[in-house]
Design brief:
This is Aspartokinase. One of its GO terms (cellular component) is cytosol. It catalyses: L-aspartate + ATP = 4-phospho-L-aspartate + ADP. It comes from Nonomuraea cavernae. The chain is an alpha/beta fold and 424 residues long. It has helices at 16-31, 46-57, 63-87, 119-126, 154-164, 198-206, 214-223, 280-290, 321-330, 332-335, 362-372, 396-406, and strands at residues 3-8, 35-40, 92-95, 102-104, 113-116, 130-134, 137-140, 146-148, 169-174, 195-197, 227-231, 239-242, 259-263, 266-275, 298-300, 309-317, 339-343, 346-352, 379-383, 386-392. Strands 3-6-2-1-9-11-12-10 form an 8-stranded mixed sheet, sandwiched between helices. It has a 4-stranded mixed sheet with strand order 5-4-7-8. Strands 13-18-20-19 form a 4-stranded antiparallel sheet, with helices on both faces. A hairpin with a 5-residue loop joins strand 7 and strand 8 (146-148). The radius of gyration is 23 Å and the shape is globular. It binds aspartic acid and magnesium ion. Aspartic acid is lined by residues 9-10, 41-42, 47, 73, 135-136, 151-154.
Length: 424
């Protein structure tokens, strides 16, 4: 008997009929002789709707209360799913993140899991029940308050529980058939990737591929837990995320580029006229770190000889930009920069592939493709297996399609079916 952990995203449980369909799928897995633990997201766009509602009553809701509000979304779907399963004659028990033993730190809105103690889930499984767990949430070890893991955090709940329960596989159900070489909503000829490494998947997740949460992939890599990303709307084999997709008994050849990811959720801040002396950059980034802001790309210009001053630009999640601007303004006296510029009309386009390590010319091909498409590059950053550029937000779609074409990733016919989801 295997232990299967399944996670169903918001679009898979968007309404009552979706929930009934998912219940049938879960029961089928149970009937096949497996122990089943299910993690659910909030129905459809519930989380966004709750956020909108919060904004209507307060421009800056307290983190504790926002987490209390947002976690209610997952509680609705877990209870409804348990009812739907009971209606099929099977025993299901729903649990909040806290009841399931998901222990986090106390950073509201982006809490980190520090321990998972799933004794109640074990007990439920031992009794032959199907355990349903609310994703995206936990309880803080010190404050005992309810926390959330950040947008898309149910994936992380699923992998963390799967690891703690020593599950055989973690299946992540979504509204597309797996991970594609680009977002099929932008590139209809994107191809399904059969297997991808944790490292490549982490880069894709960090670069805006919304299909898996970055922390979930980090977690899976740490425990070498295989993830199977597939659609809840079909029975097709999806994408396997594993340690080494190119040696594990496949004849699959390593592609140079595995995929093209894009991200519209970042903004750019430029600190203008920073005195070009030791410790200035450290002071800026210490300020931002103190405000718990994750920086992505950084560019420092050469200082102008005449002024002895330089500009430092960096990108960050748009959602964090007002916190960052406020923190920097507070330090203006100490750092003695001249001014701050802010641009949220940017987008990031990234090329990801472990194969680029051993293939020269990838950057040249990428930049030539962007130039041919008339796209201007504002910032560049690279890792061993990734090249990212910042472009104007309006150019993102064109840039993704151009890169996808330049690396011959297009399928001959349309493979991708987007079954649901508003893409919100
Ligand atoms: N419902 C949460 C969100 O929309 C968590 C998740 O879907 O994973 O971000
Ligand atoms: Mg969601």
């Amino acid at each position: 008997m295997a232990l299967v952990v399944q996670k169903y995203g918001g679009s898979s449980v968007a309404d009552a009929s979706c929930i009934k369909r998912v219940a049938q799928r879960i029961v089928a897995t149970k009937k096949a002789g497996n122990d089943v633990t299910v993690i659910v997201s909030a129905m459809g766009d519930t989380t966004d709707e709750l956020l909108d509602l919060a904004e209507q009553v307060s421009p800056l809701p307290p983190g504790r209360e926002l987490d209390m509000l947002l976690t209610s979304g997952e509680r609705i779907s877990m209870a409804l799913l348990a009812m739907a399963i009971a209606n099929l004659g099977y025993e299901a028990r729903s649990f909040t993140g806290s009841q399931a033993g998901v222990i986090t730190n106390s950073t509201h809105g982006k809490a980190r899991i520090i321990d998972v103690t799933p004794s109640r889930i074990r007990e439920a499984l031992d009794r032959g029940h199907i355990a349903i767990v609310a994703g995206f949430q936990g309880v803080s070890q010190d404050t005992k308050d309810i926390t959330t893991l950040g947008r898309g955090g149910s994936d992380t709940t699923a992998v963390a529980l799967a690891a703690a329960l020593d599950a055989d596989v973690c299946e992540i159900y979504t509204d597309v058939d797996g991970i594609f070489t680009a977002d099929p909503r932008i590139v209809p000829t994107a191809r399904k990737i059969p297997k991808v490494s944790y490292d490549e998947m982490m880069e894709m997740a960090a670069c805006g591929a919304k299909i898996l949460h970055l922390r979930c992939v980090e977690y899976a890599r740490r425990f070498a837990l295989p993830i199977h990303v597939r659609s809840s709307f079909s029975t097709r084999e999806g994408t396997w995320v594993v340690s080494d997709p190119y040696t594990e008994g496949t004849e699959m050849e390593q592609p140079i580029i595995s995929g093209v990811a894009h991200d519209r959720s970042e903004a750019k801040i430029t600190v203008v006229g920073v005195p070009d002396k030791v410790g200035e950059a450290a002071a800026i980034f210490k300020t931002l770190a103190g405000a718990e802001i994750n920086i992505d790309m950084i560019v420092q210009n050469v200082s102008a000889a005449a002024t002895g001053r330089t500009d430092i630009s960096f990108t960050l999640p748009t959602a964090d930009s007002s916190t960052a601007l406020t923190a920097l303004k507070r330090m203006q006296g100490e750092i003695a920069f001249e001014s701050l510029l802010f641009d949220d009309q940017i987008g990031k386009v990234s090329l990801i592939g472990a194969g680029m390590r051993s293939h020269p010319g990838v950057t040249a091909t990428f930049f030539a493709a962007l130039a041919d498409a008339g796209v201007n590059i504002e910032m560049i950053s690279t890792s061993e297996i990734r090249i990212s550029v910042i472009v104007d937000q309006d150019d993102v779609d064109v840039a993704v399609a151009a890169a996808h074409r330049a690396f011959e990733l297009d399928a001959d016919q349309v493979e991708a079916v987007v079954y649901g989801g508003s893409g919100r």
